[in-house]
Structures are given as structure tokens and as C-alpha cells.
Amino acid sequence: MAQSSHRWWQTGVVYQIYPRSFQDSNGDGIGDLAGIISRMDYLKDTLGVDAIWLSPFYPSPMADFGYDISDYCDVDPMFGDLATFDRMAAEAHARGMKVIVDYVPNHTSDRHAWFVESRSSRSSPRRDWYIWRDPKPDGSPPNNWGGFFGGPAWTLDPQTGQYYLHQFAPEQPELNWRNPEVVQAMLDVLRFWMKRGVDGFRMDVVGLLLKDAELRDNPPNPNAPAGLPPNDLFGRQLHTYSEDQDDVHDLIRQIRATLDEFGDRVGIGELWGDLSRWVKYYGERGDELQLPFNFRLMYQPWSAAAMRRSVDDLEAALPAFGWPNYVLGNHDQPRFATRFGGQAQARVAAMLLLTLRGTPTLYYGDELGLENGAIPPHKIQDPQGVNLGAHRSRDVARTPMQWDAGPQAGFSSVEPWLPVTGDVATRNIAAQRQDPDSVLNLYLRLLACRRATSALQIGRYAPVETDAPDVFAYLREEGGQRVLIALNFADVAVSVVIPDFGAGRVVVSTTRSREGSTVLPQLTLAAYEGMVIVL
Ligand code: GLC
Ligand code: CA
């Protein structure tokens, strides 16, 4: 139904798989590529997503669970091998699904051969592939930068007497993208995977690739929250000189040009910051990333007005060629069913995500309404949680996928790397498929509706005013087809009158029994009810 002028990454729905936690095929408690292959039919026939994005599966010592890569062009034996990857990609492609892989260009593992060579001596030919600086005269680090996971962003290498830069774990030294050899080597990584058939990349922290050329001290953050742990230097400063430097755009254009060598491939960037700076990553002429990730919905309070403002601000900021996208969760954020306050809110949020104008990215398990896993403190794995406190642990959103009510929720035959927690007896795919009122079935109806409705896939977006402050209503319209979405963020029923559209038919509701009914101009929404109404 999508017009041919729209690309697959515009009309489609992306599904993020965290490979460690999706499906274990060989009984070691860790998910793997063969496990993903065994769940292809779920992804295609049950969910019907258009693309899968896999978080890193490359060889890694796992200091940051795969975001510390020791070889960009291979598969960690824990996850399989290149042949299994090829089989996985072929199975996805045979079903018409695209394959997006993670690209982690800012840093390697400290065990990567490049870094091993770089640290071996000051005169190593690869010394300048990373960011090495002398200590200050008093022996302290070259500047004041703090790392995301706590502590300084520099570690002293005793053997050569210099510090290297790492804004994440010390095991994640940062590449020097001001060195043209690094640029070429890293663009070749993209080519390697595109030759293997991957359709796109999710690019890890690409806004960090270049730092201030003089590595100046970051200024203090006047709005730093109170009560930060003493080692959270990062939280106490603005990141003026360590991220989002103006010259990074030259590199992003080179990355995009490399994707374009292979035709229709998508670049999705993990990019933060104010809308006005963020939007620049589309490129002045659309020559940077097709989809800079838009994380803004994740940070809104549970409020119709706040969500609407976030959407309207994005729509207003986008260049004409810029395609929007939305995300509610990923492997770094608490589960949104927890964040937004419960299952009822999670259903409304799912309807929002799947009916806005823009590519939605789903995170595995959100279709079950998975909530934050309860991880006992001694089982915390995430370096961020270990260093900055249990409340910062990202493990809560990385617990095993819950397939059925059997042992380990059908994820593995042994105790998994993170525990299965929560109400697994009902919160699993098998049980929810049987229950027409489950959150999974709501997702299936929303996904089917989106697939069948070009107004939802590509139609324009316009907010609709109502006199109810807790209702976010908007119109999606394409070629004469008009769909109204009305979402009640309140925990009480609300009645509104929407006079402009005549009557409409409810095609999806968070309350299934309402589906098929005729509504408007009078519309009554139950507490936390959302409706998709065809006009
Ligand atoms: C990104 C990833 C996160 C990782 C970090 C360092 O933010 O999403 O999981 O820890 O980059 O690679
Ligand atoms: Ca395994």
C-alpha cells in the first residue's frame, strides 16, 4: 500500500533484538544467532515486522556486553560464526525482512589487535589510531572529562606513560577518527557487512566520533542533579567538548557515501542532544543519516500535553526531506511499562508508537508488556550498574525473552545469564497469543492495521484539538484516507466532542470490545483507552 516513493525504512517497523537475551539454542544460558533463526517465524508470521536490528554479536570480551568489540568482521563464538550469520540473514531475507546490524565506530575493545599494537609503544605505527596524551605535570589525566559509566574518561598506561581516552569502560578505548587510516579501516567494516547482505546499520554514539581538537576541559553542569555518586564526573559536567562537534558531520557524510556505494541501505544513528543540533544529522541536503534515532518520547512524563509537544516539535524541526522515527525503549533504558506507570499506560504508549508518522522501532519483549526485571544486586552485570549504583543498571531491560510458561520461559534449558523475573506464567508469548485481550494481541492488531493502512504508514500528521487536556488526538491522512487516533492519558474516563469529521469506525482499541463500534462526533474513552478510528 505504500507508495513506491517511500523506502522500506520509512514504511516498515523495526524490531530490536538483544541477541544475548532473545533465544538460547545450545544450553549455555546465552542467546545466540541460531536461536534467532529458530524464532524467524515469530518475527515474520506472528509479529510481521519489516526489519530486525541486532545489537552486537561480534567477538568481544563482554566488558560492555558486546559494545567492546575485538574484531569488527567476525562473530563471537558465543553467538555462532559467520556461516550462521549468513544463514540468519538469508532466513530473514527469504521472509522479506531486512537485517540491520550494530556498528560501534567510536571505540574498540582494549583487546582489539589495533589497540594491542597501539599501546605496545609510543612509536607503534598504530599509536595514533587511538587518543593518547601525556599526563599533566602533576600526573593527573590530560583533561577533566568524565565517563558515562563513572570515573575519569582517561586511563594511564603504565608501560608507555600516557593516558588513553575512553568515555565508556576503560576496556573501550576510543578510536582517533582524525586519522585517515582509521576512517578508511572503519568504512571498510561497513563494506564488509554490506557485502554479506546487511541492509543497514544502527550506529553507536556516532555523535562522539570527533572530540574537540584541543581536548579542552568540559565546563561544569549548573543543572547537575543533587546526590550523584562521587565518581559520576560525567553527570557533573556539560559535554561541550566531548560530543557533537561541528566537524563530525564531514565524517557522517563519508559514512553515508559508503552506504550509498551499495544502494538502498539505511543509516540509523544513536544521537542525543537538543532538537536544533540533533536535526543536523540528517545532513543539510539529506546526505547524512536517514534516521537519527529520535529518543524524545522516552523522556516525556506520562502526559498527553508533553507527548504532543514532543511530536509537534519534532515535526516542526524536520527538514522537508527528513523522515521522523520514534522509539520507546531499548537495551539502555528501563522498560517503558515500568517507566510510564503500568500495563494500561503501556498499551496507550504502544498505540502512540505505532500510529505516529515515522518509523517505529520496537524493543524485544515490549510486545509482552515486559516490565523491569528484578535483578538481585549481586547479579548485576552491567558496568554502569556496577559503578554507578543498582538504580542505573541497564540489566532491568535485558532479561530473557519470555516465550512460554516452561522452565526459563522457553529461553534456555539452563539458568540464563540474567534471571527470568516477573509474572512469567502469563507474561509469555504462548499464553498471550491465546488471550485475545493480551497486550501481545493489541500489538498484533496495531501492526496489522498499520500494514494495511497507508494513512498510518505514510500519511501526514496533524494534531486535533479537543477540550480534554488528558487526550492526545491526531489525524493521519493520505490520498483521501483519514484516520483519527485518540489517546486518553488519564486514569478516569473522558468524553470529548470532535465535530469536524462526521462519524468514524473504531478499528483498534486498547479495549478490544470497543472495536467495530461507531463513534464521533461524541467520543467517550475509558481510563487509559486509546482508539484508532477510520473516518
Ligand atoms: C551506546 C549503547 C550502549 C553502550 C554504549 C557504549 O549507548 O547503546 O549500550 O554501552 O553505547 O558502546
Ligand atoms: Ca547460547
Describe this structure in words.
This protein has helices spanning 8-11, 33-38, 40-47, 82-94, 113-120, 180-195, 248-260, 275-278, 304-317, 336-339, 343-355, 383-388, 429-434, 439-452, 454-458; strands at 14-17, 51-54, 98-103, 132-133, 154-157, 162-165, 200-203, 266-269, 291-292, 325-327, 359-363, 460-464, 471-478, 481-488, 494-497, 504-509, 518-519, 522-525, 530-534. The strands form 4 sheets. Strands 9-8-7-3-2-1-11-10 form an 8-stranded parallel beta sheet. Strands 12-13-14-19-16-17 form a 6-stranded antiparallel beta sheet. It has a 3-stranded antiparallel beta sheet with strand order 4-6-5, with no helix packed on it. The protein starts with 7 loop residues before the first helix and ends with a strand. The protein contains 15 helices and 19 strands. With 535 residues, the protein is α/β, with parallel strands linked by helices. The mean pLDDT is 97.
Summarize the structure.
It contains 15 helices and 19 strands. By secondary structure, the chain is of the alpha/beta class.
Q: Largest beta sheet, briefly?
A: 8 strands, parallel
Tally of strands: 19
Low-pLDDT stretches are: none
Q: Beta fraction of the residues?
A: 15-25%
Gyration radius, in Å: 24 Å
**Shape descriptor:** globular
What ligand molecules are bound, each kind once? alpha-D-glucopyranose, calcium ion
C-alpha termini separation: 18 Å
Task: State the secondary-structure class.
Answer: alpha/beta
The number of distinct helices, counting runs of at least 4 residues, comes to 15
Mean of pLDDT:
97
Helix content: 25-40%
Sequence of strands across the biggest β-sheet: 9-8-7-3-2-1-11-10
